[in-house]
Design goal:
Number of strands: 20
Distance between the termini: 30 Å
Helix content: 25-40%
CATH class of the largest domain: Alpha Beta
Shape: globular
Structural class: alpha/beta
Strand content: 15-25%
Oligomer: single chain
CATH superfamily of the largest domain: tm_1862 like domain
Strand order of the largest sheet: 10-11-9-8-7-6-5-2-14
Number of helices: 18
């Protein structure tokens, strides 16, 4: 166990003072802290952020980069993400790239294309004579559970052509509890899925009505009976704070109900109201959103509730895990990673995506696939990887990302580690950054000494702001518009 892990364990065992070092006093009773929490800035699941990636990446660019990476890192642990964009119903808060359809022929046509892309990927691996080391697979969307059994089976059979599913550390799948039953759960497990994720968002009936996602607590509770829980190694809940109709009291109740069901992991994320980006979000009445000054307290109450009453360990920026879960164990051991889905166990450092809009990250390379389904199908049928955007990081990009991810994942940044990895003098290279960070040191949010930076208990609510100071692309951080976590 790392020194940091021992500190986290000690803090977790002393729940009266964690999170936050102020005991029962709430951090966000202080107006200055509220203003600080609400300052804009990315959540840095990548660096540079997606908005900085450049259009113009091609199939050939992707093939060359992936070939070079795998040939130089034959045993690199990989994460395979598959994006299924179809949903049965439209959730008004949703920021994902989705299509609402219950037309089985249309969905089957997409499944055929997705399977063809997997086949193209298999052919590529055969051409370079490699079987990659996939450690984790995630079926996301959209709603993978919207596929019928035959469609899902065909996808997973194609996945098995490049992945040894039985040897995976984790095979996760997102579930819409409104459209599945116990028999579906058993079927998913029979295909090799060992972790399921529910987009709960909120358990309050009124809030659910205002976001067009009505799924009573009893529905979720019934699905997660003893038999279902025995089928899977873990369950994840996604919660959103800042939804229309939410109050501190109703969100506190959602956290209490979450604790009663005890999923192994919880992601608690701030809702981003961006009707200019997703037109369907206009269905939400903006006048019913909680006041911005209430949001920090809602997150603090949620974190306290999950840790104090639920026994969760806080991991990264907005993830929580039971002590026995692999994510919590990775945190104690200083092994937590960061990818496009947020905090990870660190078992799979590099990402390959399959499906429209997916992002890829390996070595110094980022790529993104096309959004439009017609373009996606045409590119895949032409035996091309459907890339349209890319970014190749230089050494300082990677060093800055390393600094950000270390703060997010470990709550510390050791200067000598960065210096040895990148051949730089930390203080000479990041002098202006350290000057800007003194603002947070003076507020007791971080501690800076000759060896590095450490995030205090109160300071962990603001980690993305410290990361922001390492961002060489963000000329005016306060002008940044939040487009989701």
């Amino acid at each position: 166990m790392s020194v940091l892990g021992e500190n986290i364990l000690e803090a977790t065992m002393s729940l009266d003072s964690s999170p936050g070092s102020r005991g029962s006093q709430h951090l966000f009773d202080d107006g200055q802290m509220v203003q600080l929490f609400n300052e804009p800035g990315p959540y840095y699941s990548s660096y540079p952020s997606l908005s900085e990636w450049r259009e113009g990446g091609t199939d050939q660019d992707y093939r060359a980069a992936l070939r070079e990476f795998l040939q130089e890192n034959s045993d690199a642990p990989l994460f395979l993400y598959l994006h299924i964009p179809y949903c049965a119903k439209l959730c008004w808060y949703c920021f994902c790239n989705i299509h609402i359809s219950n037309n089985r022929e249309r969905i089957q046509a997409f499944v055929n294309t997705l399977n063809l892309e997997l086949e193209n990927l298999e052919r590529f691996f055969d051409q370079i004579g490699m079987r990659p080391n996939f450690r984790e697979v995630h079926l996301g969307g959209g709603t993978p559970s919207h596929l019928d059994h035959a469609q899902l089976k065909s996808v997973i059979e194609r996945v098995r052509s490049i992945v040894d599913v039985e040897q995976l550390a984790e095979f996760a799948m997102e579930i819409d509890p409104r459209t599945v039953d116990h028999a579906d759960m058993e079927y998913y497990a029979s295909l090799g899925v060992n972790r399921i994720s529910f987009g709960v968002q909120d358990f309050d009936p009124s809030v659910q009505g205002k976001i067009n996602r009505v799924q009573p607590f009893e529905m979720v509770e019934n699905l997660l009976d003893t038999k279902t829980r025995s089928l899977f190694a873990g369950v994840n809940f996604d919660l959103l704070f800042g939804l229309p109709g939410q109050t501190p009291e109703t969100f506190r109740r959602t956290v209490e109900l979450t604790n009663s069901l005890a999923p192994e992991r919880v992601a608690m994320i701030r809702y981003a109201h961006v009707p200019d980006v997703r037109k369907h979000i206009r269905m939400i009445d903006a006048s019913e959103l909680p006041a911005p000054e209430l949001m920090p307290g809602m997150f603090e109450d949620g974190a306290r509730g999950l840790m104090h009453e639920g026994g969760y360990q806080w991991v990264g920026i907005d993830h929580f895990a039971k002590p026995q879960d692999a994510l919590a164990k990775a945190s104690l051991e200083g092994q937590v990673g960061r990818n496009f889905g947020g905090s990870s166990t660190g078992r799979a450092e590099y990402t390959i995506g399959v499906g429209p809009t997916t992002t890829h990250a390996f070595g110094p390379h980022y790529f993104q696939s096309v959004y439009d389904l017609k373009q996606y199908r045409a590119r895949v049928e032409a035996n091309e990887f459907p890339i349209f955007k890319s970014f190749t990081l230089d050494l300082m990009n990677v060093a800055r990302r390393d600094c950000m991810f270390s703060l997010q994942c470990r709550r510390e940044l050791v200067f000598s580690e960065i210096e040895s990895r990148y051949g730089i003098d930390f203080r000479a290279t990041f002098g202006p950054t350290l000057e800007r960070l003194k603002r947070y040191q003076d507020m007791g949010m971080i501690e800076i000494d000759q060896d590095g930076i450490r995030v205090t208990d109160d300071g962990r609510y603001f980690i993305r702001l410290y990361c922001r100071e390492f961002d060489d692309y963000l000329e005016n951080p306060l002008a940044y518009k939040i487009h989701g976590p």
